[in-house]
Design a protein that fits this description.
2 domains; Aminoglycoside 3'-phosphotransferase, Chain: A, domain 2
């Protein structure tokens, strides 16, 4: 038989670890009841010896995944497969996980644990020169609102999602605080380095007040388990470039619904534009884009009044601390042409009434 294989590891894969050979892969596949493999392609997304990720695509039907991630356990895969089942019931395409003959998803008795999932032979949104990005983004966010409306407080996971505040997602536990708090702390350091100490103090005070308000109520707010990483590299589309489903559930977890929606509504500060356009204009456009997106999702997800009161608090945190926005502020403070506008913008955000973000 002629094999069509590309199973070479990348430059980050550690030399002291033996990657599986084709014979190893074929033997493993038999544990899942798969007796033939004509074509094997490796996507190696390994970062370093502490974060190994080998993804072997088998005949465009399955993906055999090797990793050393301590967060991947039998219980984790079981809860993720239940989540995938809910997505399927909602009409959203996602790859399910496949059990071995012994009834388990995971084999973890080798230096690299492994598990098998389905392969979805559809295009990813980031692989296409999309004709209408805005429409696709709306389809994605609307699907999340629909999913939350259908599955709020259903089969909640003990693993928290990537947007979670206070309750740490798996990849936040190394630093001991949630990602947004870490981003905020770095932003304050950036302001102090350019001697904007008064602004740093005002932002710190407002940030503390808002987080305290959220912390007082967030455990009582409705939650849902989401795929939680809805960027275009994880979004499946059809031939007409419409949203079909998600892949990659590594970041999936429980999230307060209105926090999830606030993060997806986002704030469009036109981060690619590194020329001054006016702080007030940037803020007004960003708030308008947030309100438009949030209003649309809240026509699908029927939030209780307590949720509507909490959502502006989460939105303020997003407006300052969401990763792409934080990066825009950080780089803008280094830019001589943009620095004054960014400091003025942050000053306006520090004083922004919460009512402006209420939907």
């Amino acid at each position: 038989m002629t094999y069509n294989d590309d199973i070479r590891t990348n430059e980050h894969f550690p030399s002291e670890v033996n990657a599986p050979a084709r014979s190893d892969i074929e033997l493993i596949l038999r544990n899942y009841g798969i007796n033939t493999a004509d074509a094997i392609q490796l996507i190696d997304s390994t970062h370093d010896a502490a974060d190994i990720r080998l993804n072997y695509i088998i005949d465009k039907k399955y993906v055999l995944r090797f990793c050393n991630d301590p967060a991947i356990t039998e219980n984790r895969l079981s809860e993720l497969n239940r989540l995938v089942g809910r997505y399927h019931d909602a009409g959203i395409v996602c790859p399910g996980f496949i059990k071995q003959k012994n009834g388990k998803y995971l084999h973890d008795k080798t230096p690299l644990k492994y598990y098998l999932s389905e392969y979805i032979d559809l295009r990813l949104a980031n692989e296409v020169n999309l004709k209408d990005i805005d429409s696709l983004e709306k389809e994605i966010t609307d699907s999340v609102a629909m999913f939350a409306e259908r599955y709020r407080n259903v089969d909640l996971s003990s693993t928290f999602g990537m947007y979670s505040l206070f309750d740490l997602a798996p990849y936040d536990k190394e630093i001991g605080i949630d990602e947004k708090e870490d981003n905020f702390n770095e932003l304050i350091v950036c302001l102090q380095e350019i001697r904007q100490n008064d602004l740093a103090d005002r932002l710190t005070k407002r940030h503390k007040e808002i987080r305290e308000k959220i912390k007082a109520i967030y455990t009582d707010l409705p939650r849902c388990v989401f795929q939680a990483d809805e960027n275009f590299s994880n979004v499946l589309i059809d031939n007409n470039e419409h949203f079909v489903g998600f892949i990659d559930f590594n970041m999936a977890g429980t999230e307060v619904v209105v926090n999830q929606l606030a993060n997806l509504a986002g704030f469009d500060f036109d981060e690619e534009n590194h020329l001054p356009t006016g702080a007030a204009d940037r803020l007004n456009r960003a708030v308008s884009s947030y309100r438009e997106n949030a209003e649309r999702m809240l026509r699908i997800y029927h939030a209780e009044e307590e949720e509507r009161q909490a959502m502006p608090l989460y939105a303020w945190i997003v407006m300052v601390c969401q990763w792409p926005i934080f990066c825009f502020f950080r780089e803008g403070l280094k830019n001589n042409e943009l620095r004054n506008e960014i400091t003025e913008l942050l000053s306006m955000i520090a004083d922004l009434p919460e009512d402006r973000l209420y939907i």
